[in-house]
Structures are given as C-alpha cells and as structure tokens.
Amino acid sequence: MQTIEDIKKIIEENLAVMVYFSAPTCNVCHALKPKLIEAIDANFAKFEIVSVDTSLDQEISTHFSVFAIPTVLIFLDGREFLRKSRHMSVDEIVREIKRPYDIMTS
C-alpha cells in the first residue's frame, strides 16, 4: 500500500505524473482507467502513473483534496497542472497535457 510520502516522492522525482483516484464500486472509474492509461502511454513516454483506491486510502484522497471519483491529477515538474473529476474525456486530458509536456521534454 502506498503512503502520501511515497506519492509525494514519485511526484518530486518524475517530470510528469498522473495520479488516478478511483474505487472498486465505481463503474466509470473502471471503464475510464484502461483507456486513459493507454492514451498516456501512447502519447507521453515520460509519464509515471499512480493509482489510488479511495476506499482504502482515504488519507491520501484527503491530502490531495479529492472528494469525487474518478479524479485525475496531473503533475508536471512537481506541480499540480491539471485536475479533472467525474466528467472527463481521454482526448480532453491528452489535449490539455500535450503542449506543456512537449515543451518540457524538447
């Protein structure tokens, strides 16, 4: 099980990190997650992906002020860049990350 410190360390040590908050009871979470991971892997080579199960890790969810699922947090260069909750599309997330990511990695 990951701790808040583990996740903070991943965010600090990696250029780009996606933290995906979901729960076993969330059907939208399970439908979205594989598509989102596939899109991130296909478009952004240097992304680290962290999954947080909110049913087990309420403390982590609270630390990151996540109160709805699914929630995606994107960190670029150690700072929160994007936060999407509930209604989101994979294309929308990819589009919003692309330009800053390309600038950081070029």
TrEMBL record:
Residues 9-98 form the Thioredoxin domain. GO terms for cellular component: cytosol. This is Thioredoxin family protein. PANTHER family: GEO12009P1. GO terms for biological process: cell redox homeostasis. One of its GO terms (molecular function) is protein-disulfide reductase activity. Pfam families: Thioredoxin (PF00085). It comes from Candidatus Sulfurimonas marisnigri. Coiled coil: none annotated.
